[in-house]
Design goal:
about 80 residues; OB fold (Dihydrolipoamide Acetyltransferase, E2P); 4-stranded mixed sheet; mainly beta; globular; 1 helix
Amino acid sequence: MGLELFLIDQKEQQSNTFIPANHIACYEDDLNAGVVYKIKNFLVINNKTSYKVFSHKFLIQFTQQTVIDQKVYKS
């Protein structure tokens, strides 16, 4: 059990992302749609074969060591 979402990278490629249930509270208040983040210390694992959000070979999985920083752009 956990939270599945998708991320769009700098090249506008979509990827499946998974946050295990025991880590959701660490990240749910910091993740918002339409915001650019720098994400460090995550796992890249093989994606499951069914119930995928997107057809991509790999899945990004958050861990206790995952760090997300909101990127601020100056205009």
